[in-house]
Amino acid sequence: MMKTLTITRPDDWHTHVRNGAILQAVLPHTATQFARAIIMPNLKPPVTTVTQALVYREEILQALPTGANFTPLMTLYLTAATTVEDIKAAAESDAIHAFKLYPAGATTNSDAGVANIATIYPLLAALEKHQLPLLLHGEVTDESCDIFDRERVFIDRHLTTITRDFPSLRVVLEHVTTSEAVQFVVAAGDNVAATITPQHLLFNRNAMLVGGIKPHYYCLPILKRESHRQALINAAISGSAKFFLGTDSAPHTRDLKENSCGCAGCYSAFGALELYTEAFEQADALDKLEGFASFYGADFYRLPRNTDTVTLEKSTWTIPSSYGDITPLKAGETLSWKLIR
Ligand code: NCD
Ligand code: ZN
Predict the structure, then answer these.
(1) Which of 70, 111, 113, 276 could form a disulfide with 102 if both were Cys (CB 3.0 to 4.6 A apart)?
(2) What is the 37 CA–ligand 2 centroid distance (Å)?
(3) CB of residue 100 inside a 6 A radius of ligand 1
(4) From the CA of 139, how far away is ligand 2's center (Å)?
(5) Mean pLDDT within 261-286
(6) Closest Cα partner for 15 from 41, 47, 35?
(7) Whether the CB of 107 sits within 6 Å of ligand 1
C-alpha cells in the first residue's frame, strides 16, 4: 500500500507572490499548498499603507483560481516615512497582520528600507503597543561585513537591543540561516519567533557553489555552511513553537536569475510542502512536521488553526525544468513526496 501522511492544512508565514503576470503564474501554487499566507510587501513601489494593501489584496483575490480556498494575510513595508498613525490604522484593519522591516539595500526591492534603526524607535514602540508583529529581514547591509556574517552581526548589533528596549514587541526573525539565530530565538521570550525556508533546511552553500555557480540557489540570507543547516534542522524538528514554516518563495524570471548580476530568491511555492516533508523525513522527524507547518505559526499570529487536512503520498516525481519563465528550486530533480491535489 502507498505510504501517506495526513496533516492539518498548513499555512505559509512568509511568501512573495508579486503582482501582474508573476502573480498569475505563482498564486495557484501557493493557494494549492496553503490555506493562508503572509504576503510580503516588497513590490515596486512597496506596499506601505492600509489602502495600498487592500488594493493588493484585491488583486490577489482576483488572481485566485475558481474554487480556491485561500486567504492572503497582508503586511506593510516599514519605511522611514511610516508614521505612528499608519501603525494604528494597520492595527485596526483586519486585513493587516504585520509590518516588515528591511534594512535599506538588504535584498530585492529593499531600497525603501530603513537605514538607521534608531530613527524608527517611535514606530517600534507603536508596534509593541498595538501588538502588531514586526517581521525582520535580519541582515546588516554594512559594506565591510562579510555576506556570510550579516545575519549574526544583525543579531549582535540590532536585534539584541530591539528586544531589550521593546520587551513585549512581537518579532519574527524571518528565514533564519545560522546557529546563532536559532540560539537567539530559543533564548528570547515567547514573543520572539522565527520562520525557516525549505532551501535552508535542505541545502548548504555547496549546493550553490560547488561544480559551478548555481544562481537558482542564490537567495538572501545566503545559504550557509553545513553546521548551520544542522542547527536549523534541529530547531525545526525540536517541537518548539518558536519555529514555523515560511517558504520565502521568491519568484524571479529566469533572465534575472541567470545573469552576470543575478538576483536573490528561490522559487519553492510549487512544491513547498513536499520540500519540507523531504527535509523532515531525512531527519527522521515526520511526526514533527504538522506542528511546524500547521500549528505554531497560526498560534504566534493569534489566528485559529486550520481544521481541514491535506494528504501527501510517498511517490517520486520530477520537478519541471520551469514553470513558464520561472525556474523552480531543484528544477529537473526528483522529490519523494507528493501532495495529493
Ligand atoms: C526576496 C525577493 O526576491 O523578494 N529574495 C530573497 O532572496 N529572499 C527578498 C527577501 O525576502 O530577501
Ligand atoms: Zn522574503
Answers:
(1) 113
(2) 12
(3) no
(4) 12
(5) 98
(6) 41
(7) yes
